[in-house]
Design brief:
The chain is an alpha/beta fold and about 140 residues long. The protein has three helices and seven strands. It is elongated and about 55 Å long.
């Protein structure tokens, strides 16, 4: 059975309960069709990996209980400064660097950069792509 890993905000401790909402709650309830008692992996903002048991879900919110700390393999820390390409190419770069395990990606503007618009919406999209890619690859850190 493949591991199911989700990112949650905040720093948590063993034994805590966590509520997952939004798209992740939808995925838990409707896509993966998990039921009470099923286990999933949770990664908090500090990068700590936990195993949790699904207590309840209503499609909009999933409550997880009994976080159990799980050791995660250490990886080399790699930071990447990437010149911003035009079009949707940066989406691909963010996705692949996150899958490969880059710790941080710094969008770099240079004299020859064509794209100068770094709107908050674009940065939020890149963060979402990074989280999804990291979760898919079972990484415990996403930036």
């Amino acid at each position: 059975m493949p591991a199911r890993r989700f990112f949650v905000t905040g720093v948590h401790a063993e034994g805590d309960s966590v509520v997952v909402d939004g798209g992740d709650a939808h995925k838990i309830a409707n896509v993966l069709r998990l039921r009470a008692g099923d286990t999933i992996e949770i990664v908090d903002s500090a990068g700590s990996l936990f195993t949790a048991s699904l207590e309840s879900d209503d499609g909009d919110r999933a409550k997880l209980r009994g976080l159990i700390a799980t050791p995660d393999a250490a990886r080399a820390a790699i930071d990447v400064a990437q010149g911003i390409p035009k079009g949707a190419k940066m989406d691909f770069v963010v996705e692949k660097l996150s899958e490969l395990g880059a710790r941080a990606l710094v969008p770099l503007r240079s004299e020859r950069t064509i794209v100068h618009d770094l709107s908050p919406a674009k940065l939020a999209r890149w963060r979402r792509l990074s989280h999804r890619s990291a979760a898919t690859c079972l990484r415990s850190k996403s930036r």
